[in-house]
Task: structure prediction
Amino acid sequence: MLASKWVYLVVCALRRGRMRNGELARRLEGITPKMLTQTLRILERDGLVRREIFPVIPPRVEYELTELGQNLAGLLTQIRSWSEEHVPDIKQARARAEANQEAELQAQV
Amino acid sequence: MLASKWVYLVVCALRRGRMRNGELARRLEGITPKMLTQTLRILERDGLVRREIFPVIPPRVEYELTELGQNLAGLLTQIRSWSEEHVPDIKQARARAEANQEAELQAQV
Result:
């Protein structure tokens, strides 16, 4: 379930508060309407998002995080902070390893 | 990089301290020698694991987490705790949603 990029992005977007479908779509550049609906269905089914329908004309539908969803959003924020802080270190180590390998190959020539 | 199940499991196993290849293989049931070597190479290249070779006969090779690796292990532990605490809630919500859907279908018959 957590494997989907859109699950991650929808949960993060909803941290700002309840939102309508169109608002979500605007915030999530690149998501197709079908994918957004599908992601919201999954999140609702899994108890992470609550859907509220207002009986107005035309009907207004809003989505918000449940407590569990907010909790997941907190974890995702931690993962993002970790990545922002440490992924550069990983990339640096990788570049260094590749440079060393290159140097070894050169030395063998 | 984080996508691999084995990366996750090797990092978690090394939390206990430095380990030899064989010890790691025993802890990680189901990993093939090739996959273990490959995972350790990736982790070493990315600066998460340090390899130490002892000049004895036969040579002894040990692996341990770097500071960055320990840091990642901390994050992975948080993710695991979150999952252990909340995945049952998600499964429950999912089961409830499926039961409701079933009931709706029955009502329509």
The longest helix of chain A spans residues 67-108. The mean pLDDT of chain A is 90. Chain A has one domain: 5-108. Residues 5-108 of chain A form a domain with the Arc Repressor Mutant, subunit A fold (CATH 1.10.10.10).
